[in-house]
Structures are given as C-alpha cells and as structure tokens.
Amino acid sequence: MYTGLISVAKRVSQDAGKPNTYTLYIIAQDPSLDPRSSTATVSINVYRNVAPLLDRDQYIAQISDTQEVMMPFLNVVATDSNSLRPDSDNGKMDFSITNINNGTDIRTLFGIDNIGQIYPVRSLRYLTTSVYTFQVVVSDRGVPSLTDTANVTVTVTSTPGVIFSPTSSTYNLPENNTTPAYLETLGAINSAGNSALLYENVADGFAKLAFSVNATSGDITQILNFSSDPVRSLSYVLTVRAYRQNDPTIQAFKTVRINVNRNPSPPVFGLPSYTFTVPENQALGSVIGKVNATDLDFGSAGDITYSISKTSNSPLMSYVFFHVDQYSGEVSISRSVVEDHLTSTYQFPVVVTDNGVPQLTSTCTCTVNVLRNMNGPVFVPNNTYTVYIKEDAPVGLQILDLNTTEADNQSVSYRIVQNDINILYFQISNVTGIISIAGSLLQSTSSVFPVS
Question: Name one GO cellular component term (predicted).
C-alpha cells in the first residue's frame, strides 16, 4: 500500500549547491488497466546552517596576578542567526581555547565557560611571562559544525608580594648531628618595605618537632636529635611560611629537605692488627684471642658483627683453621693446625660490619704464630733399661720394647747411635722401638753391652 509520504533521503547539508528551496513534481496514478493519473508540485524550503560570528577579531585584557581563580575577567560575544529557530541545534554554540602561545600550554592558565567568559584556572602569582596570546573558537552544533575565531591577548601585571629565592634547599646531616644545630636564615623578599615579615614552621610530623623557626629572624635550628624519631625516617620535608605582619594573606612558602645519614660512623677496631701465639696441639674450639671494635652510631646502626674474610689470606686457606665469634670477636681454632705442619704463621683479615643503612665495615689483620714441636719424645717409664739374655740367644730375638710419649702428637722414630760398637750385636725397629739381636753374642767376650 502506498502512502504518498515524503521523507528526507540524504542530508541536504551534503548538497554542494546549497539551494534554499527544492521543488518536487509528484505524479499519482491508479493501478487499473487503463490508468489515470494526476500531478502535484511540492516546494521544500531549507533553513541552512549559518556560521556563528564573534563580535570582534581581537580581544585585549589586562589583569592583576592577584586575579581570583575561576573569576571571569573577559567576556567574548558571539551570535548565530540560527538561534532564532529553537527547535534546531544549528544555533547552539560552544566556546573553547586554542593554544598559540609559545612554550606554554595556555589551557593550564586560562579557561572559558559555555557563555564565553574567560577566567584563570590557577594562581597567576610569580609567572615567568607577563603577556599571553591565544585564540578563542566558537562552534555551532550543526552538521557539519561551523566556527569562528578571534585572537585574545592577556597581560598579567605583577603586584608587590613576598617571595623566596630560591624556593627550596637541601641538607645532608648525620644522625648524630649535635643539637642545637643552626641550618640557615630564611631570606624572603618583601616587595613592600612598609610591613615586617614573620616566619613560621608549617611542617607536620617529626619535622614540626625537630626544627624551630625564629619568627622574626627566620633562623632555622635543629632542636631534637634524629635518634629520637621512632620511625627513623631517612629524610624530612620542612615547609616554612613567610607572611606580612599587617596582611598575612600576602605570603610565600619555602621547602627545606633534610636527608639523614642514619649510619654516619663506621665501626673501628681498637688495633689495626692482632697477633696470637698458640702451640700446634691447641685443642679444637679453644679461644686463642679476641678482636675488639666499637661503633658510635645510635640504635641498630651501632650493632656490629665479626667475620673472617676469605680473601687476602696467607696461606690462601688460612681461614679454614680459625673461627671468629660474630658477636664477641673471640678467635678460636676450628681445624687442627697439626694437619698443616709446614706452616708456622697464618694471616687473615677479620671484618667488622655494622647494621646501619648503608652498612659500613672496617678490617683488621690477625696473625697466628704456631709453635711447632715444642716437646721431644719421652721414654716411659724411664730412660734406663737393663735386660738379661743368654749368650747363645738366637739372632732376631726381640729383647726389649721401648715406649715413648710425644706431647705434640708427632710421630717418633728410633735408631741406635752409629758410633756405638754394640750396633754390631743389636738393632732397633725405627717404627716400633723394639730392640732385637742382630749378631751372635758368642763372638764377643763382653758380658755387658751398653746400647744408646
């Protein structure tokens, strides 16, 4: 069923000719075998979108750097003839700012609302530039959107105020900094000399307690030791304020950062080197000496531990024979030096490390002299023996087993003195100390044979 309803088939805004009137010729025809028809003419008038217009090409404004944030100081005016038709979006307008200022994003300083009012979006105090140029764009909501632009120049004038130069400072202080300790004198600049400046500490936390600011001189003084901070922070931010006595709203702020070295002092040995002397049969685990170090730092930064370094040892493996208690500094035997009978002197470094941040260390040298073979072998029970044997005792007969002790735990060997003539008749095992007959006693006329 045909209705004869006319509708828009394509946006007329896409027609490059942009006529204001379209004429349609309509034919109505019946479906009979011998159809009859009738014609009609339809005229369609188009309300074309017209670009909005700003009332001028250039706007100039001069404002003070005390202009309140979000408070309008300039109004740009635009009109759009399409606004006469409230049923159309063509006459509705939007405003925006386009940045053309060199080096500065103007939108971080100024904004514009939906009725064309320009305002600062932040404080204009202490700007490095005084003149700002940018464009204002007005756009309608037609399809496509049409626009108009105008240049805006804003000059910001400075008013006398209070400034810090520089606006920040940094100090590196040791944790054990002696108090009271002077840091600096605040020197705010007051461009209006008819009013005195006052200073105050507006920090919070430990920085508020640890530092005092003289209200009139601006002297900053540390009055509490950093060790009294239970949090043990590594840095503090002290914010100080300077303001006019007759108008506290004219003010400036400075940031003072204090970095704290929580571990200013390294541990120190009482001596640069320690020497110990021990017998080679010193018992395992026995203490042979002690190294001692101290640390002046507070808290855990002053806690120290000892260790033997595996580098710079002489001989290279000296550290395997000795142990240092990590807390007391006592040096003891951890492996028998008898095993290393060719070495009589050992040298190794002992390192003391504190528990600060960062950790600090010191090193001393330990020398251990080993007394080798302090004791000779001793015959037991005595060194005089008498043995009775028959003169016809056979060669090879064992006649005496000598026993000895050696306090140094060294092995013992035996021999008969070479210039003893009786060596012809007797022999001794160099390992066991057993004396036996080496030659027939019948060949000698002696009845007593002294043997050494």
Answer: plasma membrane
Matching fold, domains 161-261 and 268-371:
yes
CA 43 to chain centre: 79
- Token couple for 33: 């075998």
Query: Which residues of 299-374 form beta strands (DSSP E)?
Result: 304-308, 322-324, 330-333, 345-354, 361-371
- Give the pLDDT confidence of 411-436 residue by residue, as tens digits: 788 888 876 677 788 888 888 888 88
Give 336's contacts (C-beta < 8 A, 6+ positions apart): 284, 321
Question: What number does CATH give the domain 268-371?
Answer: 2.60.40.60
Are the beta carbons of 290 and 271 closer than 8 angstroms? no
Q: Model confidence over 340-393: pLDDT tens digits?
A: 888 999 999 999 999 987 889 999 999 999 988 767 788 888 888 888 888 888
Interior/surface letters 201-224, b for 16+ CB within 10 angstroms, e for the rest: bebeebbeebbebeeeebebebee
What CATH class does 53-157 carry?
mainly beta
Q: How many residues in the chain?
A: 452
Q: Which CATH number fits domain 161-261: 3.40.50.150, 1.10.260.40, 3.30.230.10, 2.60.40.60?
A: 2.60.40.60
H or E segment and range at residue 207: helix 206-210
